């Protein structure tokens, strides 16, 4: 008889429903979350290679002044329409059936990385938000100052987060209630008007020197009787998109990351380029494609306008008929997608 490996265990929130049959929970190997079945530990040698290698697009990037357009105003906050509003990078305001969500709020500059775009309205005017969705704890997705700001002006806020990320929230906003979930689990704090599921992503975690993959990462799916919305978080291209499609497809609206993909030798396992994001979208049998994770922060080697140009070329070829690229602050009304 094969003996169980004492270095491997599985973790999930036992109080929550697990929607994938026979799923034991997220695999943990020697105290680190696996990326599916296998550990993914980004190699420092590749980071060093990136820092020491010249960017072949350096001059093109230096001359590229693109930033996403911004539609000023905060009327979307007081509207009663179901909508999606991009606030830059991976931050979205989403309203479904009268319930309001904010994803991965990063509203200010990051350490050593300045924000290149404005918000459509001051952060203190982001009001009446019911739930905060945090896909993972990298600093360009989980920003403590932004979380404090949103919670200060939305005392009713509840955070829906991956396993173990609550350790950061307890040290950031002690009174912010939260619920942790593993992959393929359904949060049970959301009113019945919207179902919220935490789903896989191909990524990793690190904020400090000793916490590599100690906290989980993932994606979200929001579902009502009328619409299914997928927020991919940060992810490389992988088989989890097929699993998600098997459970939920076709998906009406997919919010997909399309930036921070060069150099490929460093980024490929954790980020998608536009072609890969479109391939994942088609795997999900998506209806509308909204891109994110581009233009707001300079995190990689590609010129800032390159993801936009590539998506426009793919759409012009007929391979992406559902592309929508809203300005920051421009509402995408969900009724117009149906």
From TrEMBL:
Residues 103-294 form the Metallo-beta-lactamase domain. Gene3D superfamilies: Ribonuclease Z/Hydroxyacylglutathione hydrolase-like (3.60.15.10). This is MBL fold metallo-hydrolase. It comes from Pontibacter aydingkolensis.
